[in-house]
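user: At home tonight, take the chain set out below, taking as long as you need, and be ready to discuss the fold:
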Amino acid sequence: MRRIFSYLLFAALVVLGLFFGQRNAERVTLDLYYWVLEMPLAVAVIGSVVTGVLLGALSVFLSAVVPQKARIRKLTRQMSRVEKQAPPADSNV
């Protein structure tokens, strides 16, 4: 059931993408200082959205994930030191 839903969602997104591309087929020129690109408006818009999502994900990764990984490493080292200092557990209890 889940696989069928995934296929239907993918098909719907493809149809919407084709419709969006057909409706925004006029050519636009992007002047990027050293390069001049000419492409359909739909490609420019989708490329801008993808670029924004990637930059946002990179921002989240650098501001949240990297510091958390450093904290986990620090706490793991502290835990290893504490475990080495702790007396062995009494197995008779």
Observations:
- Strands lie at 27-32, 35-40.
- The two ends are 52 Å apart (CA to CA).
- Residues 27-85 form one domain.
- Helices lie at 2-23, 41-85.
